């Protein structure tokens, strides 16, 4: 069985390849990337597969049995890019697709979910057997916020008391590997999230505990949070997008207590305190 991984040189993709090599022969793994030269260190075959260049996709997917479609990082272009991959996969005879979606994609109020819903629908319509890996937030998403909190003396956000069931990229990579190498996952949708949830106040308390400094959480109006992000160099449009996610987060959009992720990977998910420690170490 040949397994293809799109976005294999990305942060999640590299972890998937590394973990997959421990469970499958390297010769059965293909990195599908924009620039094959950048995949040289992965230790697997690499093919050019650019989401934005459909002409590269058909040949790249030839001979691929199982495809892990890691969602594009280009918000606003994902739906078209993903459709191009799905169309090429169907023409190439790909037998199974696993797709990294977003937690509770069908009901999430986070605006990112729209493109994931469209992609899930396109995969279903293709007729290719599928598995949806609806990943929750990466704990690493808070790296910049943690650094800023230590430097500025406070963690800021607009998520109120919303609980966040995050996990690490390595945890989500392990779930992808379990699905790619296991059986019985066709037609399944997995809501993947960390075992323990935390609020941003909890995150601030953990930062305080580990640094020995008092780092409170300051909950700001969304507009003020966006302005603060922009003042620290985040592009204005992206700052507004990040701040806009906080309202649905405050209402539970990133909370899930099903423990599906830990069941799938056969171990507890990484405690958020461990990730905070790693971030603080730099």
The strands making up the biggest β-sheet line up spatially as 3-2-1-4-5-6-8
Number of β-strand runs:
9
What class, by secondary structure content?
A: alpha/beta
Which segments are poorly predicted (pLDDT under 50) over 5 or more consecutive residues?
none
**Total DSSP helices:** 11
* Major sheet: 7 strands, parallel
Tell me, rounded to a whole number, the average pLDDT. Answer: 97
Helix and strand element order: EHEEHEHEHEHEHEHEHHHH
Helix content: 40-55%
* Domains (count): 2
**CATH fold description of the largest domain:** Rossmann fold
Q: Rounded to an integer, what's the Rg over CA atoms?
A: 19 Å
Q: CATH superfamily assignment of the largest domain?
A: NAD(P)-binding Rossmann-like Domain
**What is the CATH-assigned architecture of the largest domain?**
3-Layer(aba) Sandwich
Which term fits the overall shape? globular
For this structure, what is the CATH class of the largest domain? Alpha Beta
Quick structural summary:
It contains eleven helices and nine strands. The protein has two domains: 3-134, Rossmann fold, CATH 3.40.50.720; 140-164 and 195-257 and 266-281, UDP-galactose 4-epimerase, domain 1 (Alpha-Beta Complex).
Q: How would you describe this structure to a colleague?
A:
There is one protein chain. The radius of gyration is 19 Å and the shape is globular. The strands form two sheets. The protein has a seven-stranded parallel beta sheet with strand order 3-2-1-4-5-6-8, sandwiched between helices. A two-stranded parallel sheet has the order 7-9. The longest helix has 15 residues, at 78-92. The mean pLDDT is 97. It has two domains: 3-134, Rossmann fold (3-Layer(aba) Sandwich); 140-164 and 195-257 and 266-281, UDP-galactose 4-epimerase, domain 1 (Alpha-Beta Complex), CATH 3.90.25.10. It has helices at 11-20, 57-61, 78-92, 113-126, 143-152, 169-181, 200-211, 222-231, 236-250, 260-265, 272-281; strands spanning 3-6, 29-33, 45-48, 66-69, 96-102, 130-135, 155-157, 188-192, 217-219. It contains eleven helices and nine strands. The protein is α/β, with parallel strands linked by helices and 282 residues long. Residues 7-180 form the NAD(P)-binding domain. This is SDR family NAD(P)-dependent oxidoreductase.
